[in-house]
Design brief:
The protein has three helices and no strands. By secondary structure, the protein is mostly helical.
């Protein structure tokens, strides 16, 4: 999966979680500071991403650094796809 596809999937997942359209994200957008996510909304977003792009996330192995920005989340998702063989 390409980076652009992951960012698009993140936009869709965020739109579901935040219950409002989220478009035009750049990799510099900060999830907590700019989008005002909290730990619950991050978990909801991860579940939506799991369904959308068939990636498996183990909450026990999450590192908050992976959620600083759209770019770091994209890196995380891509690394999970590699390790899960997708």
């Amino acid at each position: 999966m390409e980076r652009h596809d992951v960012v698009t999937a993140v936009e869709k997942a965020l739109s579901e979680v935040l219950e409002q359209p989220v478009t035009g994200l750049t990799e510099e957008v900060r999830l907590f500071e700019d989008l005002h996510l909290d730990s619950t909304s991050v978990l909801e977003m991860l579940m939506a991403l799991e369904d959308a792009i068939d990636v498996s996330v183990d909450p026990e192995n999450l590192d908050m650094d992976d959620f600083k920005s759209v770019g770091t989340l994209t890196d995380y998702v891509l690394s999970q796809q590699t390790t899960s063989g997708v």
